Amino acid sequence: MQHVYRAHYQTLMWKSSLISEPPEDADPVKYGWTKRNDKLFPVMLPENISPVPTEILQMIKCACSSMRACSTSRCSCASTQMSCSMFCGCHAGVDCNNVNTRSILSQEEKDELMTDDDLHNI
């Protein structure tokens, strides 16, 4: 919400840029800023408040870390048919078994994964 206030304040300033005085109601303190020592600072969220609700964080990242990470519906990413990401417990690495996850391998990693049969088929 504070960011929206500051964006609104910026818009007010841009719209009034061609007049000599800013609008009278354009006090930055009313629009997501705080004043300390004649300097403006953005109003931030308190330390104890997360910018994202816990429920949302649980929806977008899993905590899988087993030997067969993300292989069952207990993986929140796999159960919602989302891919895992680097923020998940599995880090979306080569140990991730979520079929929706596409890991990007370097050429060296691809070469290591190729078997002898693969080499004969080239």
- The strand line-up of the biggest sheet is 1-2
- Please tell me how large the radius of gyration is: 25 Å
Structural class: mainly alpha
Number of helical segments with 4 or more residues: 5
Order of helices and strands: HEEHHHH
Stretches with pLDDT under 50, minimum 5 residues: none
Task: Describe how the helices and strands are arranged.
Blueprint: H1 2-15, E1 33-36, E2 39-42, H2 54-60, H3 76-79, H4 107-113, H5 116-120
Antiparallel strand pairs: 1-2
Protein name: Tesmin/TSO1-like CXC domain-containing protein
Features:
single chain; 122 residues; mainly alpha; 2 domains; elongated
Q: How would you sum up this structure, described in words?
A:
This protein is mainly α and 122 residues long. It has 2 domains: 2-42, no CATH class; 50-122, no CATH class. The chain has helices at residues 2-15, 54-60, 76-79, 107-113, 116-120, and strands spanning 33-36, 39-42. A two-stranded antiparallel ribbon has the order 1-2. Strand 1 and strand 2 form a beta hairpin. The radius of gyration is 25 Å and the shape is elongated.
Tell me briefly what this model is:
The chain has 122 residues and is mainly alpha-helical.
